[in-house]
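Fold Annotation — chain and its backbone

Fields — amino acid sequence, C-alpha cells

___
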Amino acid sequence: MQITLNDQNLDFSLEQEETISDIVEGLKTWLESSGFILTGLKKDGEMLSLEDADNWGGIPIQEVKTLSVETRTKAEVGYEMLDTVFEFFSLLEKGLKTRNSAVIDDLMKEYPDIRISLELLLPNSGSDMGNSEVVLLNSVLEENGLLSGTYGDRNLKKVISIVKQVKTIILGRMREISNPVREILTSARLLDNTIAEICDVSVLLQTGKDQQAMNAVVRFTELSQKLIRLYPLLEEAGALDTAQSNVDGLSFEDFYSRLNNVLRELLSAFEVKDSVLIGDLLEYEVAPQLEQLIILLNAIQNEEEQ
C-alpha cells in the first residue's frame, strides 16, 4: 500500500496496523506532534469523510492500494476558522444596523456552530480577555432576545457594540497568525513600556487609584497571553526554536511555568487587596523576568533585521 502526504510519497513503515483506522490514528499522532492537522483522506482516489470513520475505519489495509492524506498547519486551519467567524459577525453587524430581521434570524440559526468555533479559537485560559468577550457576547445576545428570536423593537446598540469588540479581537488573532514576527516585535515594545507601568501599581493602590492599577495589570495580562499565543506561531514560521531558546537560564517552557506561578500568586494578592505583596511581586519577581524575556525578543528582532 502506498501512502501519500499532500501528493508526496510518504515513507511510512507498517508495523501492527491492520486497518485504515489504525494507520489514520498513527498519522494523526505524528502530524499533531509536527504542528499539522489531518484535513482530507482518500482511498484509491475516493474521498473518505473524516466524520464517517465508522464506515471505512475497519477496511483491511490489504484492500487498499493508495491512501492519500491531506494536511494543513494548525495556523492555516485556525486562520480559516477565524476568517469564517469574522465574516459571520460582519454580516450580523450589518443586519443589526439595518434592522434586517430576515438576515438576523438566518444568522442566529448558525450561531450555535459559530459559538463552538469561538470557544475553540478563544479558549478560557483564566485571564484571556478574548474569552471574557465571548462570555459577554452570549449574555448580551440572550438578554436582548437574539437567541430566542424575540428581539422585536429593542434597542440593539449594546449588541452592535459587543459584536464590534469581538470582531476586533478576531482581527487581532488573524494578524498574529498571518505575521507573528511583526506582532512579537510590536509586543516587545509594549512589554518594555509595561515594565515601568507595573512597577507603579503598588503606589497606585496605596494612593487609592485602584482602577488605574487594575488597568495596568489587565494590560500586562493581555500582553502575556498574546506572547504565549505567538511563540508556537513563531516556531512554525521558523523564527524561533523554543527547544533551544534560553530565558534567564531556563528553557522556554520552564521560564513561562515559573512566570505563571508568580502571576497566580499575584492574582491571589489582588483578591485580598494586599498592596505590599502586589508591589513586591510586580517589582521583584515579574519585572525582572520580563526584562529577561525582552532580551530574547530583541534577539529575534536582530535576526530578522540581518
